[in-house]
C-alpha cells in the first residue's frame, strides 16, 4: 500500500484564498475594517526570524496588517509586560503574539498569560488553554497547530470518533491540547512521552488508527510498527546532516517518511504538511478577532 500524501501547502493555500476574499469583502462593506496583528520578537534567533517572516508574508497576502516589533534580547520582563499591556489597550490591534522561545530571564508563562484573552490568537494564555481542558467548553482561540491538524483531518475525511489515536509529545501548546481536543471529539487517546517505554511505544502505535508525532526527534516513527492504513501526522521540525545540500543539512519531521509511506493510509510530509496549516490558522484567528471587534 502507498499512502496518500496530505498536501498541507495546497490545503492552506485554498484556505488563504477564502480568508483573503472574506477580508476584501468586509473591507468593502466597512472602510474601518482593518485586521491587525502585532508580533513581538525578543532578540534575533534565526529560526524565530524565519517564522516571523513567514507570518508577515502570510498576513500581507490576505490583507492583514502585520507589524513585527523586534525588541532587544536583554529587555526586562517589566518592559516587555508594559509593551504587551499597551498593545492590549490598543483598539486597532486585534491579535498579538510573542514569538517563542524567549530568553531564559523571561518567564514564558507570565508573558503568554499577560496577552489579553480576546487578542491571544496563539491560544497560549491560561484562559484559552484552560477551556480546552474543560468539558463542554471551548476556548476563544485554539492554539494554531492543534487547530490546523483538526482542520487537516476533517479536510481529508479522517474520522476521529471511536478511533484509537496516539499523540507523541505532551507540550502545553501542541501535544496536550491536541490530545484533549481529539478526546473531546470521541477518540480514545494515548499520549506517549519521554518516560514511555519502547515496548509501550510499539504497542500503542501499532494499534493506532491515527498517530500524531510532535517530539522533535528525527525517525521517531518508523514504518515497521505503524498499523497498515493508519493516518500519520508529522509535527516535527528537525534538521539532519545532508552532504547533498548547500547548507549541509536538510529539514525533516519526526517520521521516517519513506518507510511509513509504504504502509500508512495517509501521511503529512515535512515540509509542506502541518507547518503551513499552523500559519494559516493564525490568519483565521486574527480575522475572527477583527470580526468580533467590528460587531
Ligand atoms: N514558536 C514556535 N512556534 C510558535 C507559535 O506557534 N507561536 C509562537 N508565539 N511562537 C512559536
Q: What does the secondary structure layout of this molecule look like, with pairings?
A:
Elements: E1 4-5, H1 8-29, E2 36-42, H2 46-62, E3 65-71, H3 77-88, E4 95-98, H4 108-113, H5 126-132, H6 144-155, E5 164-168, H7 175-184, E6 188-192, H8 198-206, E7 210-213, E8 231-234, E9 238-241, E10 249-252, H9 257-261, E11 266-267, H10 274-294
Parallel strand pairs: 1-11, 2-3, 2-4, 5-6, 5-7, 7-8, 8-11
Antiparallel strand pairs: 9-10
Helix pairs in contact: 1-10, 2-10, 6-7, 6-10
What does this structure look like?
Residues 6-122 form the Tetrahydrofolate dehydrogenase/cyclohydrolase catalytic domain. With 295 residues, the chain is of the alpha/beta class. The chain folds into 2 domains: 31-117, Rossmann fold, CATH 3.40.50; 144-275, 3-Layer(aba) Sandwich (Rossmann fold). Helix content is 41%, strand content 16%. It has 10 helices and 11 strands. A 6-stranded parallel sheet has the order 1-11-8-7-5-6, sandwiched between helices. Helix 1 (8-29) runs parallel beside helix 10 and helix 6 (144-155) packs across helix 7. It starts with a strand and ends with a helix. The structure holds guanine (GUN).
Question: What labels would you give this structure?
Answer:
single chain; 295 residues; alpha/beta; Rossmann fold; 6-stranded parallel beta sheet; 10 helices; globular
Amino acid at each position: 500500500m502507498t499512502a496518500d500524501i496530505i498536501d498541507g501547502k495546497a490545503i492552506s493555500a485554498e484556505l488563504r484564498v477564502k480568508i483573503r476574499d472574506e477580508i476584501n469583502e468586509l473591507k468593502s462593506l466597512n472602510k474601518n475594517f482593518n485586521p491587525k496583528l502585532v508580533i513581538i520578537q525578543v532578540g534575533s534567533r534565526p529560526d524565530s526570524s524565519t517564522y516571523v517572516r513567514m507570518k508577515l508574508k502570510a498576513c500581507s497576502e490576505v490583507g492583514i496588517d502585520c507589524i513585527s516589533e523586534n525588541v532587544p534580547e536583554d529587555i526586562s520582563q517589566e518592559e516587555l509586560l508594559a509593551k504587551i499591556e499597551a498593545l492590549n489597550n490598543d483598539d486597532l490591534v486585534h491579535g498579538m503574539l510573542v514569538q517563542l522561545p524567549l530568553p531564559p530571564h523571561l518567564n514564558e508563562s507570565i508573558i503568554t498569560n499577560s496577552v489579553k484573552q480576546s487578542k491571544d490568537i496563539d491560544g497560549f494564555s491560561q484562559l484559552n488553554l484552560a477551556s480546552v481542558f474543560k468539558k463542554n467548553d471551548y476556548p476563544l482561540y485554539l492554539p494554531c497547530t492543534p487547530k490546523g491538524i483538526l482542520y487537516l483531518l476533517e479536510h481529508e475525511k479522517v474520522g476521529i470518533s471511536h478511533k484509537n489515536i496516539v499523540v507523541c509529545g505532551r507540550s502545553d501548546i501542541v501535544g496536550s491540547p491536541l490530545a484533549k481536543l481529539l478526546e473531546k471529539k470521541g477518540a480514545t487517546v494515548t499520549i506517549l512521552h519521554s518516560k514511555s517505554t519502547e515496548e509501550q511505544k510499539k504497542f500503542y502505535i501499532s494499534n493506532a488508527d491515527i498517530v500524531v508525532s510532535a517530539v522533535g526527534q528525527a525517525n521517531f516513527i518508523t514504518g515497521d510498527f505503524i498499523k497498515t492504513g493508519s493516518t500519520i501526522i508529522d509535527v516535527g521540525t528537525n534538521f539532519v546532516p545532508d552532504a547533498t545540500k548547500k547548507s549541509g543539512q536538510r529539514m525533516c519531521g519526526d517520521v521516517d517518511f519513506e518507510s511509513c509511506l509504504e504502509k500508512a493510509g495517509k501521511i503529512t510530509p515535512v515540509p509542506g504538511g502541518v507547518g503551513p496549516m499552523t500559519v494559516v490558522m493564525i490568519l483565521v484567528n486574527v480575522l475572527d478577532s477583527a470580526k468580533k471587534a467590528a460587531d
